[in-house]
Design a protein that fits this description.
- The chain has 404 residues and is mainly beta.
- It has a single domain, classed as Beta Barrel (Porin), CATH 2.40.160.
- The protein has helices spanning 32-36, 50-53, 249-252, 287-290, 296-299, and strands at residues 64-72, 77-80, 96-99, 105-117, 120-136, 149-167, 170-186, 207-223, 226-233, 237-238, 259-266, 272-281, 315-327, 330-339, 360-370, 374-383, 392-394, 401-403.
- The strands form three sheets. Strands 1, 4, 5, 6, 7, 8, 9, 10, 11, 12, 13, 14, 15 and 16 form a 14-stranded antiparallel sheet that branches. The protein has a two-stranded antiparallel ribbon with strand order 2-3.
- The model is unreliable at 1-20 and 393-404 (pLDDT under 50).
Length: 404
């Protein structure tokens, strides 16, 4: 592809501001208690949904079942300044500040665990990722065939876990994970000349994919006041999004990236628990997520192995939580988490569709015992605003384009 064609995506000035509330597109925490702790707690056993974070945790619990419902309300918008270059055969982006119309998402999460021996337990967890939905009421890329622009990615996972306490206060666990996801995009017809399969680029119905992976974990009491936990989740090898094989690299491939986490829990005094976790999500393993927009859009068609992607980097998250227990049947929790922004300022354009830029999360919650066997929990999370700014411009003299 000739270099001048690159100008079709460039403006004299492009400013993008977006907001999103996750660790990339992962939730900040799974399970109400762990969510109230900002996602920390890999070293402690708080509920059956701890198997999602660390399968080794379930061996320390009595038989239980829980249902969670999360409400997620991200506010996404972008602002574009500047006008199309006017260069023949090119297009720009629609100027203005545009807000995504879809701002409310619900996430049910189910989990249960059961002791099968004094030192062994099994668990089943059903959970999901979501909120990766943008619905802009404008033709962002001047797609005349669509009145709006956006994408929708939804993911669901079913995890079966087994844990064993191999020596006193030390356990190992493993999970088999089934993943299901679906995706749809609209308003991207302007990229048809850059696609290996223009008919499978945009405006199609939902496309689904399925795949499997695993997770392994350890949890143990190192000394009386210190616990340690760690877990690793493999990449989930997913089938391709066939209706979007002209958009995502590797013919529609969109695997679930691998991740690892480790953390400690300190008990400084009776009823107190302090938790510190570190987690990394390896987005760079997935070409459809990590391939940069440029120069890939010049050198390879969308959908090819080296086709353009979202340019995401690996994300490292640090999570801190504090828990106070035993106050007349009440437990109180709070937390803070910080994660790196996966989107460099050179990758703003494609990420108008997936603005996962939030970095700071503040959380709080409580649990109230009801009788001897039941309890109810409630958690809150507030994500601080964040934005990414990028500039795209064309060198007028040489007609060579540069991304700054």
């Amino acid at each position: 592809m000739k270099k001048p064609i690159l100008v079709l995506i460039l403006l004299f000035g492009l400013l993008v501001q977006t907001s999103f509330a996750t660790d990339g597109y992962y939730r900040h925490g799974y399970g109400i208690k762990y969510s109230a702790l900002a996602g920390s707690g890999i070293a402690v056993s708080l509920s059956s949904l701890g198997a999602i974070n660390n399968p080794a945790s379930i061996v320390n619990l009595n038989d239980q079942f829980e249902i969670n419902l999360s409400l997620f309300s991200p506010m996404r918008d972008y602002t574009i300044t500047g006008n199309p270059s006017g260069f023949e055969g090119t297009f720009g982006l629609t100027p203005g500040q545009i807000e995504s119309e879809q701002t409310m998402f619900f996430f049910p999460t189910l989990g249960g665990n059961m002791k099968i021996a004094d030192n062994m337990a099994i668990a089943l967890s059903i959970y999901g990722n979501g909120g990766m939905n943008t619905d802009y009421p404008t033709q962002t890329f001047y797609d005349q065939a669509s009145p709006g622009t956006g994408v929708n990615l939804e993911q669901m996972f079913v995890s079966g876990s087994y844990a064993i306490e191999f020596i006193k206060n030390h356990s190992l666990g493993a999970s088999v994970i089934f993943g299901w996801q679906r995706f749809a995009a609209k308003g991207l017809a302007a990229f048809s000349n850059f696609s290996s399969e223009p008919g499978n680029l945009t405006g199609n119905a939902f496309s689904t994919s399925r795949g499997f992976g695993f997770k392994v974990g350890y949890q143990g009491q190192l000394i009386e006041w210190l616990r340690f936990g760690a877990a690793y989740q493999s990449k989930l090898a997913m089938s391709e999004f066939e209706r979007y094989e002209g958009l995502f690299a590797e013919q529609g491939d969109f695997d679930i990236p691998a991740s690892w986490a480790a953390g400690i829990a300190v008990i400084p005094a009776a009823n107190w628990n302090l938790m510190l976790d570190v987690k990394q999500i390896l987005y760079s393993q997935i070409k459809s997520i990590s391939n940069p927009l440029l120069p890939n859009l010049q050198t390879s068609l969308l959908g090819n192995d080296d086709g353009a992607g979202f340019g995401w980097k690996d994300v490292l998250a640090v999570k801190f939580g504090v828990m106070y227990t035993g106050v007349c049947g009440w437990d109180f929790m709070a937390g803070y988490s910080y994660n790196e922004n996966p989107i460099p300022d050179t990758e703003v354009m494609f990420n108008i569709l997936a603005p996962a830029v939030i970095q700071n999360h503040i959380t709080a919650g409580f649990t109230k015992q009801i009788g001897t066997q039941n309890e109810v929990s409630l958690a809150f999370m507030y994500a601080l605003d964040n934005s990414v700014t990028g500039i795209l411009w064309k060198h007028q003299t040489s007609r060579q384009s540069k991304l700054q």
